[in-house]
TrEMBL record, chains A, B:
<comment type="similarity">
    <text>Belongs to the carbon-nitrogen hydrolase superfamily. BUP family.</text>
</comment>
<dbReference type="InterPro" id="IPR050345">
    <property type="entry name" value="Aliph_Amidase/BUP"/>
</dbReference>
<dbReference type="GO" id="GO:0003837">
    <property type="term" value="F:beta-ureidopropionase activity"/>
</dbReference>
<protein>
    <recommendedName>
        <fullName>Beta-ureidopropionase</fullName>
        <ecNumber>3.5.1.6</ecNumber>
    </recommendedName>
</protein>
<dbReference type="Pfam" id="PF00795">
    <property type="entry name" value="CN_hydrolase"/>
</dbReference>
<dbReference type="InterPro" id="IPR036526">
    <property type="entry name" value="C-N_Hydrolase_sf"/>
</dbReference>
<comment type="pathway">
    <text>Amino-acid biosynthesis; beta-alanine biosynthesis.</text>
</comment>
<feature type="domain" description="CN hydrolase">
    <location>
        <begin position="71"/>
        <end position="343"/>
    </location>
</feature>
<dbReference type="InterPro" id="IPR003010">
    <property type="entry name" value="C-N_Hydrolase"/>
</dbReference>
<keyword id="KW-0378">Hydrolase</keyword>
<dbReference type="GO" id="GO:0033396">
    <property type="term" value="P:beta-alanine biosynthetic process via 3-ureidopropionate"/>
</dbReference>
Amino acid sequence: MTEEIESLDKILEKYIPAEELKSVQRLLYGCSPRKVLLDPSVEAQAQETNFELASYEFFAQKEDLRAPRHVRVGLVQNQIVQPTTSPVESQRSALFKRIGDAIDVAGKAGANIVCLQEAWTMPFAFCTRERLPWTEFAESAEDGASTKFLSNYAKKYGMVIVSPILERDESHGDVLWNTAVIISHTGGVIGKTRKNHVPRVGDFNESTYYMEGNTGHRVFDTKFGKIAVNICYGRHHPQNWMMYGLNGAEIVFNPSATLGALSEPFWPIEARNAAMANSYFACAINRVGTEMYPNAFTSGDGKEAHNDMGHFYGSSYVAGPDGSRTPGLSRLRDGILLSDLDLNLCRQVKDKWGFRMTQRSDLYAQGLKEASSLEFQPQIVKDESL
Amino acid sequence: MTEEIESLDKILEKYIPAEELKSVQRLLYGCSPRKVLLDPSVEAQAQETNFELASYEFFAQKEDLRAPRHVRVGLVQNQIVQPTTSPVESQRSALFKRIGDAIDVAGKAGANIVCLQEAWTMPFAFCTRERLPWTEFAESAEDGASTKFLSNYAKKYGMVIVSPILERDESHGDVLWNTAVIISHTGGVIGKTRKNHVPRVGDFNESTYYMEGNTGHRVFDTKFGKIAVNICYGRHHPQNWMMYGLNGAEIVFNPSATLGALSEPFWPIEARNAAMANSYFACAINRVGTEMYPNAFTSGDGKEAHNDMGHFYGSSYVAGPDGSRTPGLSRLRDGILLSDLDLNLCRQVKDKWGFRMTQRSDLYAQGLKEASSLEFQPQIVKDESL
């Protein structure tokens, strides 16, 4: 039944009177949503192609020496287009067409950086534990079909595109990775970064397909700021978010695929906590819809075999370093979330809260070293009266 | 104006119809509040002494080998009782009386562990940067007035008490610390633990009074489970929460003193994120009210001198490892929040989500070591076209 809810924000707006809604939004989001007006032609194009389109802004203070560093970021969440029983090429082409439409909207709206959802080129088929045909969606990060496809869009709109795909690494024994490709505004590939933490929870059987990433915590210095990508389950690990921050990220994208029954109470918390703790912008993207697979599978929960994982609840949002965030996109519909960031806010918040200055990295380097040793003895003080 | 709001929860309950409220609560809190009925005599006693009293429970699955490990935790939030201009002994006695009343309610309700707010024996006078008379509130952790006072209550009710105070360490040159004392259910002192991260934000001028804690991330093995204390500003540092988890904590208390205008959007996020990320219960406690000081002070924000820090917004809550949480106590009133935990939930969630298994501590030990080196070079990939 909860699947039918459009979004938390819509319920709040429907019932709570304006004055008290402001207080609720301040408590929940740090501020009332600061909407940005877009050109009506862009709105019309989103409507024609059936994308929800939302647009918000974050503010920084004016500085004397630095000009504002405005960046318009676009997040795309979407359902798969064709049934999972269609031929691979057909499924993929349909997704390319759909994402092309989304990028056209974002591009015309002046987006500087667009990030797509995790494994956007395919259904999230890892629940099945089957190999073919799903692994056929894997491709080279550097010159696979999706990279070539997006490269044209990046050049056309002069935008950076973050493209999370299933990677086939032919130069290392054909292994698979869960990878994000960073495409320059010029159309070239700046580099790639891999998912550092791989889930073993529920139907997220990804650990049988690919391993924990070996690319560290790279930050990509693009025309529009320093960006990083924390893929999906990596958002549960604060230390992962932290390392992107230590490497200088100003925006960290979290392309995801996650389910209502499993993770929805976690969703508004984790990326936002990361934005606060690390004084950067965090952009959380989740896919939408329910994907049906031809062969029924069980979920390790004693229940009967079934053909779907459950409902991907969308709800993509952007969180700022100052504790504010945007409302989420729909839980049900394809959508594009545009956010205007002033990257100067990151350093301003660092100076205000001092989290980097007070974080005592050396203490934790030592603590984690001990904790990861086989001889680790937890620091326990016993009640001697027991 | 927002100061006048009683709580977010009260607004939601007032306006949103029951069926949709359930959905809102599931999205915000992981579940509808699971209230626990208390004995009417306890309710009456809370009312007589003017404490809001709320009580909730968390569930774990039944196990074959382990019996449930039920613990009733009590959090106390309160205003100071007397004006800050009263004699120190008088202010302190009034607070002792008030806290005695709170513990009587919690004790009669069967609480096993009670945690008080940060520096509960005094006004939060560090905003003034004045020494006397405020530093007179400091005392020995082992045998100071408040420890002796609480020891009797601990023994009387057979409860563990966590007592956050301003510590005077006579054996190390009379220095001050921000410290929590852990008092056994027998009345003895199990040990103490100090605030690891000290703020330099707004009027939180604590860094001029005491230094970063030197007690590491101790976990106290009490009759009612393994507990730790992350004091106030330490909640902004996920790595601090993490180390308590690695040392085996099942409940981490976060006694705080924080202000609406500064931190309120952070409040519901940080302790809850910690509970999720570390598979333990996190208990966030904030003081209540506005404290007036005799001498006006400025706040480093260009505004005029004034006599108060702002509004401490209470809103104490408990978050579970499964993503659920209780509603918050009032933003305005003294209150006692009781929560029934089954500590078996911690290991059950660890087995479900696998965050400890997948956390790659060795990778982060190395990463933090490098990041804290003077020679650190962030891992940056440049767009060569720039």
